[in-house]
Amino acid sequence: MMNLPKYVQIKEVGPRDGLQNEKSWIDTADKIAWINMLSESGVEEIEYSSFVNPKWIPALADAREVGQKIKRNPNVSYSALVPNVKGLDFALEAGIDRASVFMSASESHNINNINKSIADTYPVLKRVIEEAKRSGKPVTGYVSTVFDCPHEGRIAPSEVLRVCEKLFEFGVDDISLGDTIGSAVPSQVEQLLETVLHHYPQEKIIMHFHDTRGMAIANIMTSMQYGINRFDSSIGGLGGCPYAPGAAGNVATNDVLYLLHGLGIHTGINEQKIQEASLFIQGKLGKALPSKSLAYLASAI
Amino acid sequence: MMNLPKYVQIKEVGPRDGLQNEKSWIDTADKIAWINMLSESGVEEIEYSSFVNPKWIPALADAREVGQKIKRNPNVSYSALVPNVKGLDFALEAGIDRASVFMSASESHNINNINKSIADTYPVLKRVIEEAKRSGKPVTGYVSTVFDCPHEGRIAPSEVLRVCEKLFEFGVDDISLGDTIGSAVPSQVEQLLETVLHHYPQEKIIMHFHDTRGMAIANIMTSMQYGINRFDSSIGGLGGCPYAPGAAGNVATNDVLYLLHGLGIHTGINEQKIQEASLFIQGKLGKALPSKSLAYLASAI
């Protein structure tokens, strides 16, 4: 029988990665009420917003107010995305327990997304990471397009490894490997983890899947068979794909919990509370979210 | 690395299991045009309709006309669902290459679905199977609710095995094990296959997953790790769940093909043609189908 972890840690990224890719504006008060619901679900980490310039992510322009007004649960670690030292300063002011920096494993996706080459991104992230660490905050490094890039196609595991090496050298505590366009199949997950786990212990690696083609749950299964027990997910499967406006977003926390609890894996998260928070944000967005477990529960007779 | 089959055979059940659970009536001419499209996709088997009394499945009341008028591709095996000898006679008249009989592993689901106890169902199926074999037609036995029953909960693998034993004794050529309510997680698939494959060779067993909670692709991965290389799927994820009107149906052929082809597994099916046939039936139903790969391709920019 499969060898699976007994415990899996979920980071809820709906308020950041989810909303970042939604076109609708969610009122700040609704965001706060919703994050407060998530804070009571038993989830241990919530990425509550992004301190990227609002010009680039208007949906999260209220990051400071959100950070200041959410009710902090002492059992939850609150993180936010920070692009540079200025963003980090705003985030520290608003309150974070952990900072998240980001870049791509693909040169052209990095240029498209951050407007810098990979080489030019390193010194920026180095400074942010050092300053966050000086402020006593752990740092997660997001590496995106670790399997496929919308511009370059297949990304070699060695390219991903090179970026991981730099980020760990700069001092990140862990790295979240992102299937940004939700294109990977389990054999790609195997190949990447064979490479990465040859150099770093499992507990330093988080897997971040998008469910664009419905492969995310299978990819999580494969990751767990490699001992990975930390995953990013987004409530209801919020988000979407900038390259396909009708496509699914991050893997849904609801579906991940259905899988994990069904497998007898402990998460500490209350599915009922995740369900309620999903219906809340679904109502605010005014459209059905892509999570199949959510659709099932919402319509069960 | 995982040990996976090199070739997987898909049975397209959209025209039967898919449409059976859709509320909209699809015109007979459209069904025929659509099945003709599927016949040109490279798929080797299509279940084109059901000869159950139209009172129970009004969506497929035109089974005879469909069977008579579809353009038969000599490389495709055309099957249909038959509940009894009368249904089999109609199916033989309309033209079938293979007959499918069905029952549940759960007593109460069987009573609900067929209006007979499991014990009373056996002699009916025995006669159909024998008569189909006398007419030179191979027979597939569908066993539903092999993991969980909506009335009884968890079904023991030993119960499923007992039904399989009977059906093989009556002469079925193979058995399709159905996760009718789409509730299984991979550990359940493992447990069932450990039991069933202890008694029967892999090539006699087909897995039939519904994607109600988004677990089907992971369950297919697990099945393939046990050597299973025959799956039922439904184009676009057509269908739905009688217990949850908004929930997903059969696992989508589109998503299965994305997985299999991504893993380098041969199917002989042209994804582009499946995509076109999906958009055709989606247009006739007038609603978005649940396949995530379809949603991605349909909206990619």
Automatic annotation (TrEMBL), chains A, B:
Keywords: Lyase, Metal-binding. InterPro entries: Aldolase_TIM, HMGL, PYR_CT. PROSITE patterns: PYR_CT. The keyword Lyase applies. One of its GO terms (molecular function) is metal ion binding. Coiled coil: none annotated. It comes from the Bacteria. NCBIfam families: PRK05692.1 (NF004283). This is Hydroxymethylglutaryl-CoA lyase.
